[in-house]
Structures are given as C-alpha cells and as structure tokens.
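Example for tutorial group B:
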C-alpha cells in the first residue's frame, strides 16, 4: 500500500506552486497507485520545469540526440567537453519515482555513451536538494573523464573504510 509520505516531494512541490497536495497526484508522475486528477497541476508543474520546457520546444537547447522517449542535450554549463545530459520526455522528479522511466533513461545513456562518447566517464544523477539535485526532473549526466582532468567527485571524502573481518 502506498502512503502519503511516499509522495512527499510532490506535496512539497505542490505547496510551492500553491496547489492542494491532494490534487497533485497526477499523471505526470506515473505510478500504478496514483490516480489522475484531471486538473491543471500537470501543466503548472511542467511550465516551471526547464527540461519539460525543452521537451515541449518552448526553450532552446543544444541537442546531441533525440529518441522517442528521451533527449540528450549539452548542459548550460558543461564541466568538460562532451558533458551531456540524458533526460526522459516523461516528467519524473528523480530516479526513484518511476523505475521504468529511470531504466529506459539509463539504457539511452548507455546507448549514447557506446555510440558517441568514448573513453572513461562518470554517469551521475541526484535525488533531492541535499544530494545536489537542482532541477527536479530526472536527468543523467554523462561526464567524459581524462587523467588529471582536475574534476573531483563531490562525495569523495579522502577516507577509506577499513574492511571488517
């Protein structure tokens, strides 16, 4: 059984948009337990989402590739040459919200990395503000890497946990 707490990010976003949380369990967050409400919450959420704006052709982007279910674009501030975002066309807030969309997006990222990008790279995504998520629409960063490129992963502490016996 799904609980209201499971949808806390939706409720928080709805509060930000001035919508009643009960009205915010909409189709743009696909989930078998979520009812469609039929009001304008979907459009209000998507109008505020920069990736939905790009997906709908209402905002410019430098496209790398497009599939029926996802796009790949160059981010506004790429950290290295070849840095690419892979974004599902379906609006889901993060990788945990809809596993099927997340898996399909991961497949698209793997396909793109195999066909267009070569060498070492990081695949990075975040869930929540504390994890550095700044756009609340699932997106995967493909970041090509080179030896001594100076990029540090944000979670590297420099400490190593000793193995337990």
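The residue assignment follows.
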């Amino acid at each position: 059984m799904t609980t209201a707490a499971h949808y806390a990010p939706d409720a928080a976003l709805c509060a930000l948009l001035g919508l009643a949380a009960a009205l915010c369990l909409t189709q743009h967050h696909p989930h078998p337990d979520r009812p469609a409400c039929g009001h304008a919450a979907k459009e209000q959420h998507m109008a505020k989402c920069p990736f939905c704006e790009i997906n709908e052709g209402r905002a410019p982007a430098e496209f790398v590739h497009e599939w029926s279910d996802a796009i790949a674009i160059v981010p506004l501030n790429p950290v290295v040459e070849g840095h690419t975002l892979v974004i599902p066309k379906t609006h889901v807030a993060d990788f945990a919200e809809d596993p099927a969309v997340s898996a399909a997006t991961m497949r698209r990222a793997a396909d793109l990395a195999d066909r267009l990008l070569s060498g070492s790279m990081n695949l990075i995504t975040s869930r929540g503000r504390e994890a550095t998520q700044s756009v609340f629409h699932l997106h995967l960063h493909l970041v090509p890497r080179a030896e001594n490129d100076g990029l540090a992963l944000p979670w590297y502490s420099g400490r190593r946990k000793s193995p337990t016996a």
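DSSP finds four helices and five strands in the chain. Compare this with the pattern of hydrophobic and polar residues in the output above.
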